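Can't paste images in this forum, so I'm doing it all in text. The chain is below; anyone willing to post the predicted structure tokens underneath?
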Amino acid sequence: MTTTPSTQGYSTSTVLGRRLGGELLQLRIAANLTQTHAAKALTASTTKVAKMERGWVPMRDPDIRALCELYSAHDPGVVGRLLELARIDRERRKAKGWWDDYTTLGVMQEYVTLENAATGIKTWQLGFIPGLLQTPQYVRGLRKSPRRLETPASRKEGDEEFIAARLARQQRLSDDPPLRLQAVLHEGVLRNLPLSVEAAREQLDHLVEVSNLPNITLQVYPFGGGVHQGMNGPFNIISFAEPGAMDVVYYESVLTQTWIEGGEGAATYVELFEKIAGYSLTERESLSLLHTVRKEL
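Text version of the structure:
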């Protein structure tokens, strides 16, 4: 778990790199071997092994196969998952995309590059429409609200550039193949829009429209649905392959961003998300509520 990506010399610690390194570390510990043993198998230094286990450097397939052989990790599923994780991490490190043109992303750049590489996102939101589903007017309403808390980073952000970056993110929903999005929103999100009536209706209409897309599932957790652990805060689960195989979790507070890189921690959040979705209104019921809220404006 970490709050932000780190840099060291010409290397960068990435979320996927740390996930991969952590899994290799656990395999080494289970095999009761040291970094010296691993270094010998790779004909490398222990410093290189340490960097690999901490996610500082991209990993080559031959090195992963050699370490799996050393650690007696012969399960094709395990080896294949590690190789796929390494491939995605290598591509993410060298990727150049629309995000390079936006200085407003700041600490969110790591997130959007992962989002761009992901196959699916699950998001639970207590206070805001998910960024992937926000209209430009909704974003403007948030940024111009007198109740908005400004941070040193946000003071440097231009509104229109920020909105343009947000719309660029949303292109993943219509890519080929498109990003799969499962969003669960607390009912309060729909009833507390920071907008004029006209703009609020536009945002609700947009939610209705996107809820009909085959790659988007939208549910509402209703008032009176009860208290659960998800009330502690919103979170996103980012997937890179089949469900559960390569999940990482992202959540943020006012001044910090936190990643949970796989393992039992990510699995716990996946289980929590599924429970929240199970307690929520169905897609049909959620769509009906969207129409009801719009009529009440």
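The two ends are 42 Å apart (CA to CA). The first helix runs from residue 15 to 30.
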